[in-house]
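REVIEWER CHECKLIST
Item 1: Sequence provided? yes
Item 2: Single chain? yes
Item 3: Sequence as submitted:
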Amino acid sequence: MNSRDLHINRRGLLNVGMLSGLGLSLSDVLRSQARAESRNPAARRKNSVIILHMRGGPSQLETWDMKPDAPVEIRGEFKPIPTSVPGLQICELLPQTAAIMHKWSIVRSLQHPPEYGDVSHSRGDQVVFTGHAPGKVENENAHPSMGSVVAKQLQHIDPTMLAYVMVPRMIPGTGSAYLGAACQPFQTMADPAAKGQKFEVPNLAVPQGVAVDQTADRRRLLDALDRIRRDVDHTGTLGAMDSYQRQAWEIITGPRVRQAFDLDSESQVTRDRYGYPPQYTPRMRAGGDNPGWNQRLLLARRLVEAGVRLVTVDLRWWDTHDDNFWSLKNGFLPPFDQSYSALIEDLDQRGLLDTTLVVAWGEHGRTPRVNATAGRDHWMSAFSAALAGGGVKGGRAIGSTDSQAATVRDNPKHPQDVLATVYRHLGVDPTINYTDHAGRPHPVLPFGKPIDELF
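Item 4: Structure as written out by the authors:
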């Protein structure tokens, strides 16, 4: 390494490990994690969670809670198929998921508290990510997301690994609220690429002109950073580089985090197993918004394998007010079927399924009756979730709805119960109170109990 390799301008050094768009450095996250304390010894286990957020609200009637005996205007166009578990059926467009039913379970009796009113989309996002009633600002959560709580509470087992990652970027409900910027998620910003394109995370970019290829060079670079700090500190702009800033530099220049994001290191067989989404057309609600849908799930597996505690994956946009059946058949269900089944099997084959809880759900359900444009509208009174791993016993259906999937018939559950299940798996204490900006205390979770029937 020569002096030219070590040249870093002041702006480049200040941006080391910056989390895009937040003004938050990776060193802030590390410092917060180092201060975090947990009352629960379970937090020391190497457990992880993957949240597959089917944003827009998937129809329960075309996924996990079909009603084949209902009138056609209720049951819709698709038929149920048997699964690997006798007596359990799901949609015919999910054959690969049906084949592994013994590895995952369904909660069919989710509902939003009626006092929350209309929790469409961003308001529903706030509920399912925070466990609190939605705030007054539509796209900004008033309480911290579960990922931010994880970042706040858990002393990360490996301090050189991120705790909370959002793929590809934040959506309503996923922020840290009054826990502060240090508990915001690390955003990949870039999307896992379509076939033949390279995926790169801009937030891991090293300042131009810095060579970090060799371990020895990295150590020499860190030593050089100290010299650079001394050289520029007289300006008063940079300030002292503390141990956490050095640790942040170790992360972005070190191999582990970079390898976790390196999809090119996966075999083509594995990448093909997760699949690549079809080319979207203007008729689809997605409108080409999710070019890396399938590969996002592969990235999530790589991240938890590397030690990330909570990964949230944005799987938008299931808002099928129009063309519900065409969109599900041609755009949503086949890619989900392929990538979800691949994720569960991949985690299982790698010995990660027992320690990784996977939750697939949206922010609400959809209307039982098909509308005039062959779509389904928003519905808060009944929706479903799929859970796998983390000790979940496969092949179970928890709760039920009426003959039209309109209301919960037995064993009602709320989103808060799913969050309580997530928190228990990770060893997070949901009874801890944090104060908001006005000094008022709020519990991590206002109510909710783990769904023990899953275990």
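Item 5: Key structural point noted by reviewer: The longest strand covers residues 104-110.
Item 6: Recommendation: ____
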